[in-house]
Amino acid sequence: MNRFTKASLVAIALVFAQSATTAAFAATTDLPQIHQQGAVTYLSGGVGSDQAAALKDVMHKYPLVLEFAGATHQGNEYLADVPVHITDMKGATVLKATANGPFMLATLPGGRYKVTASYEGKTQQRVVNVSSSGHVRTMFVWPAHADRSES
Question: Are residues 5 and 41 in the same domain?
Answer without folding.
Answer: no
